[in-house]
Design a protein that fits this description.
Largest sheet: 6 strands, mixed
Number of strands: 6
Number of helices: 6
Oligomer: single chain
Distance between the termini: 32 Å
Order of helices and strands: EHEHEHHHEHEE
Helix content: 25-40%
CATH class: Alpha Beta
Strand content: 15-25%
CATH topology: Rossmann fold
């Protein structure tokens, strides 16, 4: 069966009550802050008028609430495999706190993020495999357009999985929107006027 998915819009959830802009919250379920709700409202304005056959969101509350703000009248499928990576003993810490507590591991992490396994948390390969499973389920729905509301690492990994390439540069900011389309040649490319 040929893939039907042709357009994918990815939105990163807004800031959380736990300061997700500076703290590493992966598996920890923290709600959106008021600022986060405003960020998502701005994202809603950026996707206004776009139609989605399906809307999927991470099962963590910050992404689920973001999805409800973005498309309040749409059915939202909560996908556990689109949860953020589990940072293990680094959950809830800032970069500075991690560097102070685990300087050697912090250095390894900074040199080789793609292959880093979080201490007491999720292996990078397991995280990527989990996101791939979720993507396969999304593709099996046979929709042509989809909105996915998730997390920094999930958005980045989904983009890498559909494009087949490791992406340079930063992931979308909190409340950021990324659009990609599949061309006639089967390759995915950016379809984002903001990028």
């Amino acid at each position: 069966m040929a893939e039907r998915l042709e357009r994918l819009v990815l939105v990163r959830h807004g800031e959380t009550a736990g300061q997700s802009s500076i703290r590493y919250y992966g598996a920890t379920d923290v709600p959106l802050s008021d600022e986060g709700r405003e960020q998502v409202q701005r994202a809603r304005e950026r996707i206004a008028g776009e139609r989605f056959e399906v809307v999927w969101a991470s099962s963590l509350s910050r992404a689920a609430e973001s999805a409800r703000i973005l498309v309040p009248d749409h059915t939202i499928h909560l996908e556990a495999d689109f949860r953020e990576v589990d940072f293990g003993r680094w959950e809830g810490l800032t970069r500075e706190e991690i560097a102070a507590r685990d300087p050697e591991l912090f250095s390894v992490w900074q040199r080789d993020l793609a292959r880093f396994d979080y201490p007491g948390g999720e292996r990078r390969a397991d995280f990527r495999a989990r996101i791939a499973r979720g993507l396969e389920r999304l593709r099996a729905v046979e929709a042509t357009t989809a909105l996915v509301v998730a997390h920094k690492g999930v958005v980045r990994t989904l983009l890498e999985l559909v494009s087949g390439e490791t992406l340079p540069g930063p992931a979308p900011e909190l409340g950021g929107v990324v659009r990609v389309v599949r061309g006639a040649d089967g390759r995915w490319r950016s379809d984002d006027p903001e990028r």
